[in-house]
Amino acid sequence: MQNVKKYFTEGLIQFTILLSLIGVRVDVDSYLNGPYSPLEINDGPSSAYIQTPFHSLRDNWDGYSVHPKCPELDYFFACRRLLDEVRALGSPIRFPTQLSAWLVHQVPDSSELREPPNSTSNSNVSAGLLSESTGEEANDTELLAVDESHTAAQLSEPGPFPSSGACEIPNQEVEELKGRIQEYGDEGREEPVSLTQLALSSTLEYEGLLSSGAPLSSPEDHHPPDIDQHWSQFLSLPIYEFDLSDLDTDISSAISQDVSLRDAMVTGSVYDMIPPRGGVRTLVARQPRGPLFRLESTNSSNLSPGMTTGLAALPNAAVVNGTRNGSSSHGALEGCLDEAVFDQINLLGLGGCLETMDAQLLGILQGIDPRVLGDLDSDSGLSLESSSRGPDSPSASEVSSSSSSSFFEDEGGATGYSSEVDSLPSKSIANYDTWSPVDFSESVWHDHSYSSAAFSQPSATTFPHKAIKEEPFSDEDGEDDEDRELSRDELRTRALHVPFSAAEIVSMPVEEFLEVLEGRGLSPAQVAFLRDIRRRGKNKLAAQNCRKRKLDAITGLQEEVERLQAQRSRLLRERQHTAKALGAAGQRMEHLSRDIFSRLRDGSGRPLTSERYTLQCEANGRVVVQHIRRPSVATTSAGGKPDKRKKEKKP
DNA sequence: TAGAGTTGTCATCTT
DNA sequence: TTAAGATGACAACTC
After folding, report:
1. Where is the composition biased (Low complexity) (predicted)?
2. pLDDT at residue A92 above 60?
């Protein structure tokens, strides 16, 4: 209340002084009804424009003077500052910025603030203002003194500037302002919603805040919930809301896109089920992803016997646990996983008999659509090329012929269409059973660090190789089918009578591999060959992983680009919205100016016109009526100098 | 048949 | 020093 009295007293004194200086008569009694009446009429020169920075005005928000340490000079500096600002308010371009300073705090109308600050409301407000102004001019003489006091008090209400987030206004003042706005609105001349849109001081300032990333003051501490909501919707929060919403969006989109990505570049999740060796599970480089499991679980219902055999070779616990672990982070896929697990368990039940698989089951294998096998191969991290090397593959004969021609033929370039995994049920396995003292079923589960899909596929090596040899995948020439199913290294392995398959050589731990090299009495050629096989196999997987990572990176960057584009478009919309709000505020300011001028009278009792006078808002919320000095009237400006000095000295 | 995509391999570098 | 992994480049192949 002391602040109110202070402003009242100061305003009244200034008002009286200024009136005496310019000779404008104002019905002072009307202002005595209101608590605030710092309406001043300044007739001083306004040639110079001085920009008033927001930060320099912060000391005035709570009614403090410019120099709180010098109370005795408050009045002097306040008046001087007031006059300076009045002079500085000559540029109409600048007024919107100052306008926002006080309009921000007079907006709060609960009913209106709940409206989203959309362009529709702005346009409506603008239209309403225009229509009101026309009708109001005709009713100038009917205005009441009480209304004048309210209007003047409303305009003179001291308030914070938006540069600090407009959070300093007390709730009491907010409520008071609400009442005034409502009272003013009851006259059918106001739509506070337009003022709420002035929360943005200017588009540039808003962009500056956005670009600088400076957190806008949270309105939560001082504003009613409706104001908070409005602010969060309209002003600063978009920055954070963008991020959060975009983050959510990105996550969801990333997941959805991940599905397609995984489908496009499926890797062998089957191998994630490989039980750990020595209790350490390291085959997790190919992360078990939801879409991958979904894909496999979906396919599990249509699993071919080939897949069945592959899964059958997996220990039950390993399959279940591996699947569970892999799906731990994909709760939404658990249903599919359960289905997949049950399918796999069922298949495992079948797989238990696979060790004694006979020609009857292999006959089923013959009925497998090669494309299905190809899909299974594609699901593995390692390309098995079975899809391209099916019985119907046109290149099969070529590979077969080339590979059968010479095992030591130097095949430069890509030989990626040789199937190593398909070669597993091959002669090398037979040789392995004959030669290798190492338990193959154990070596298959060697948990090598590199995530190979292909080398867990050796579960297929649990096939009775004899049966496979007896029952090739194709009913065509059996020998050619076998050969073309073998990779180059596998064929070489067979040729060299190496007691290991290429898959084993690659998948076995380095210690074991060294033991093989040293303890087998292999010839130097065989040793070099085994090293080459191992190197190529590992490099093949490394290349696959590398490509997968590259694709992931590309996908991630694409998602980032999409997210940033969406954010940019949203910011552009916000800027448009802000520009509209600013325009509406300007129209409203014009309307209010006309309203005030229609209530003011000069010394001869004539109403003030906007052509001769202009309203300027000060930092402390006071409104000053300033006489417009036209450049053409040079003598007037010369004569105005003494007035200015007088005004400056008067206080 | 040209071109894009896939895959294996090699060479090289880094860890 | 060696093994393993990562990655660019190339070639073969498929579609």
Report:
1. 379-406
2. no
